[in-house]
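Memo to structure team: turn this sequence into structure tokens by end of day. - J.P.
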Amino acid sequence: MLSVCATQVAEIQDALRKKKDVINFDGMRITMRDTVALFITMNPTYLGRTELPDNLKALFRPMTMMVPDIDLICEISLMSEGFKEARMLAGKMARLYKLCEEKLSKQKH
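Reply from structure team:
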């Protein structure tokens, strides 16, 4: 299944490189737009997940995601708003956010 996806992704990327207006995609006529983008995400640490095949991996640029530094984000946000005690307040805000994440349900509040 994933090697079929690799073939189709390669076809779309080739059409973008060649600036084609229309392509024949899996028997269908598709109008191409230059604003199209393809992304693939994976988290190989979950149980039951397998690595992507090399032919599919080769079509994408790898990028690593990290957990954001909430303390730093809070501090910079407070500094940009002109708070003089931004570092101290950032620690308190970060603790508040973490408590909310732990104690509140996932629904929007």
